[in-house]
Design a protein that fits this description.
It comes from Spiromyces aspiralis. The chain is of the alpha/beta class. It contains nine helices and nine strands. Helix 6 links the parallel strand 3 and strand 4. The protein binds S-adenosylmethionine.
Length: 246
């Protein structure tokens, strides 16, 4: 049943409110495991096309749009500052800025987010960008300074390690990034806040999930429709940080 569905053309609906279009637009795409078909599918990837049409810097924008639709991560009221780890080229920051505008009003971009990446990122209104290694103590200090005395109600991590092609190594690197994000959330995320953290499956995520469950009222694993089917990436969506953590 599942494979029959996977080989059929599937339908994805884009939200007009968020994407700024006048009606629900059906986008057709094919998923297939064969590399030849994959190349063809990639060439006509609807999320790549949509990103171009919607002026997003990355197709990954749609992952955050999907997660926000399901979990209402960006709240209508001004909820302090958002931290975006692994932000380049800026697709998620663009979504944050657009969602803040839609949900909070026109002047809401000021002081919206602090973002960090190893790579440079072109400016986005309301986003303070720090270039460097998130796991580095000096970068954490700079993040702390940028946050100041504001409350952090949402930490996002779309960080992906430099892939070696060796599955066990890549999984371990991904887990290391996640542990750093969890430690950061322990220290900086306000109680009641949320964390979204990308990980690559490989076995150790069950231990990570157990650790996250000690810290958050709800921990869910998500694979957005816009995440490539053949990728082992998943997102832990952690809701409502418990008050006695950090
Ligand atoms: C999938 S991309 C993020 C895409 C981004 N969410 C967007 O929508 O534009 C993953 C990013 O994680 C960054 N990254 C990986 N390890 C990092 C680290 N230790 N510190 C900071 N950034 C890191 C990479 O440089 C890369 O830009």
């Amino acid at each position: 049943m599942a494979s029959r569905i996977a080989h059929k053309t599937r339908l994805f609906l884009r939200s007009p409110r968020i994407l700024g279009i006048s009606q629900w637009v059906p986008v057709r795409y094919k998923s297939s495991s064969s590399s030849k078909r994959w190349t063809a599918a990639q060439a006509s990837d609807p999320f790549v096309k949509a990103a171009k049409a919607d002026s997003y810097r990355a197709r990954s924008s749609y992952k955050l749009i999907e997660l926000d639709k399901k979990y209402d991560l960006i709240r209508p009221k001004d909820e302090g500052v958002i931290v975006d780890c692994g932000s380049a080229p800026g697709g998620w920051c663009q979504v944050l800025a657009r969602l803040a505008q839609v949900k909070r009003g026109n002047d809401s971009s000021k002081g919206l987010a602090v973002a960090v990446d190893l790579l440079p990122m072109l400016p986005i209104a309301g986003v303070q960008f720090i270039q460097g290694d998130f796991t580095d103590a000096s970068i954490k200090r700079r993040l702390s300074e940028a946050i100041g005395d504001r409350r952090v109600k949402l930490v996002l991590s779309d960080m992906a390690p430099a892939f070696s092609g060796h599955h066990t190594t890549d999984h371990a690197r991904s887990m290391n990034l996640c542990e750093n994000v969890m430690a950061f959330a322990d220290e900086f995320l306000s109680s009641g806040g949320s964390l979204v953290c990308k990980y690559f499956m490989g076995g150790d995520e069950n231990e990570l999930r157990a650790e996250l469950r000690k810290r958050f009222a709800r921990v869910l694993s998500e694979k957005p429709d816009s995440s490539r089917k053949r990728s082992s990436e998943r997102y832990f969506v952690c809701i409502d940080k418990k008050p006695d953590i950090g």
